[in-house]
Amino acid sequence: MAERKAEAGDQARRLERLLKEVRACRICASELPFEPRPVLKAKASARLLIVGQAPGTRVHATGIPWNDPSGDRLRSWLQVGREFFYDDSRVAIIPMGFCYPGKGRSGDLPPRQECVQQWREQLLACLPCIELTLLIGQYAQQYHIPEAGKSVTGTVQRWREFAPAYIPTPHPSPRNQLWLKRNPWFEQELVPDLRRRIREIFPELPDIE
Predict the structure, then answer these.
(1) Per-domain residue ranges of the chain
(2) Is the whole-model pTM more than 0.90?
(3) Please, which residues have CB within 8 angstroms of residue 47's CB and are 6 or more apart in sequence?
(4) Topology, domain 2-201
């Protein structure tokens, strides 16, 4: 027991040091539209990992992940409040890219690969308690479950194949409202299953209404 506590303490300290390094990162500063501001949250005790694409402009401005309408919808899918969502002792939020990458022709640019190459595996190695990884969008899904293919719709339709370790979802952006209307099974089947899974991992949460 004492050895396990010591190991857990070492992992927590490693993660704390690593997060400081990530937040000070300037590897791709010359390629970004704004000053680097890596946005991520984690503690070694986290049991849920949320993996999105990269911060948008509002998240970049506040430094708070999912602090926008997309985050509101995501919390609605999970049926959790902000207090739980931002409790990094329970929920780690580590997107594929940590800084706002800039604007593309249709939406934001893809997340910078430097984040993956320099930091991702080191961060994941410091999260031994993760029971569920929520994969939001194409980039997160291709990295964590590459066998799923490039189609977000096809991957999300196969969510049962990747459970219980992973659950893929589309991006909760208001821009995806048409996708949700065309795929009603997502909110009828996957979302209730996701909420049940969250409450299996966190029995302290109130029951689903």
Answers:
(1) 2-201
(2) yes
(3) 90, 91, 129, 130, 131, 132, 201, 202
(4) Uracil-DNA Glycosylase, subunit E (3.40.470)
